């Protein structure tokens, strides 16, 4: 029982760290426009179940925009 509780606590900590990292990473991006950043930060905040999916889509969009710039 204690192991299950500890795993829940650790999972919550990992999610908080991941959320924080993703938000900072999106805000720091110089490649995509502000509208894209706002859209993805809103998606991540409003749909915490899908944060990894939304972040991956952001990275893909950023990668695609970066190719166009060069």
Give the arrangement of secondary structure elements.
Blueprint: H1 2-28, H2 34-46, H3 51-69
InterPro entries: Uncharacterised_YwnF_TM (IPR020205)
Features:
70 residues; mainly alpha; 84% helix
How would you portray this structure in words?
By secondary structure, the protein is mainly alpha-helical. The protein has one domain. 84% of the residues lie in helices and 0% in strands. It is built from three helices and no strands. The protein has helices at residues 2-28, 34-46, 51-69. The longest helix is centred in the first third of the chain and has 27 residues, at 2-28. The radius of gyration is 15 Å and the shape is elongated. 9% of the residues are buried.
Strand content: under 5%
Note the overall shape: elongated
The rounded distance between the terminal residues' Cα atoms is 55 Å
Low-confidence stretches: none
Number of helices: 3
Overall helicity? over 70%
Number of strands: 0
What is the succession of H and E elements?
A: HHH
Calculate Rg over CA atoms.
15 Å
User: Largest sheet, if any?
Assistant: none
How many domain regions? Answer: 1
Mean pLDDT across residues = 92
Structural class by secondary-structure content: mainly alpha
InterPro entries: Uncharacterised_YwnF_TM
